[in-house]
From TrEMBL:
<dbReference type="GO" id="GO:0004312">
    <property type="term" value="F:fatty acid synthase activity"/>
</dbReference>
<feature type="domain" description="MaoC-like">
    <location>
        <begin position="9"/>
        <end position="99"/>
    </location>
</feature>
<comment type="similarity">
    <text>Belongs to the enoyl-CoA hydratase/isomerase family.</text>
</comment>
<dbReference type="InterPro" id="IPR002539">
    <property type="entry name" value="MaoC-like_dom"/>
</dbReference>
<dbReference type="Pfam" id="PF01575">
    <property type="entry name" value="MaoC_dehydratas"/>
</dbReference>
<dbReference type="InterPro" id="IPR029069">
    <property type="entry name" value="HotDog_dom_sf"/>
</dbReference>
<dbReference type="GO" id="GO:0006633">
    <property type="term" value="P:fatty acid biosynthetic process"/>
</dbReference>
<dbReference type="InterPro" id="IPR003965">
    <property type="entry name" value="Fatty_acid_synthase"/>
</dbReference>
<dbReference type="GO" id="GO:0005835">
    <property type="term" value="C:fatty acid synthase complex"/>
</dbReference>
<protein>
    <submittedName>
        <fullName>Acyl dehydratase</fullName>
    </submittedName>
</protein>
């Protein structure tokens, strides 16, 4: 895969939106083995000072990574680039309401640098208008 000439520092990438519901939390818990009750019990979440049931931090990070894979697949006829680095800090919880709608996790991205076959991306990940990941970033090899 080669980097398209349209991908350069400052390029804004198409915002991706991923709905997260309580059912998604159950599925993720089963896949990850993380059955901490803060991810499914309003009572427990409230008892530990959380505003409600929260999404798993790694689910949030995985959805940010999904956006990176989708963006880079768009560059190369469906084959995503190799993710060399992916990082962020968990700064705010993603509170998931107990309804069928859930909350939208919104991932925006900007190309920060292109160096040979490496592309550095800066991400912004929000839920309900609040940034939920601090300094989210990715480096991909095209």
């Amino acid at each position: 895969m080669s980097i398209p000439s349209s991908i350069e520092a400052g390029t804004a990438l198409e915002t991706r939106t991923y709905p997260v519901t309580r059912a998604d939390l159950v599925r993720y818990a089963g896949a990850s083995g993380d059955f901490n009750p803060i991810h499914w019990s309003d009572r427990v979440a409230g008892a530990v000072g959380l505003p409600g049931v929260i999404a798993h931090g790694m689910l949030t990070q995985a959805l940010a990574a999904r956006a990176v894979a989708e963006w880079t697949a768009d560059w190369a006829d469906g084959a995503p680039a190799q993710v060399v680095e992916l990082g962020a800090k968990f700064t705010n919880p993603v509170v998931v309401p107990d309804d069928d709608t859930g909350i939208d996790l919104v991932v925006a991205g900007t190309v920060k640098a292109v160096d040979g076959d490496l592309v550095t991306l800066a991400l912004e990940v929000t839920a309900g208008g609040t940034k939920v990941l601090g300094n989210p970033r990715a480096v991909v090899r095209a």
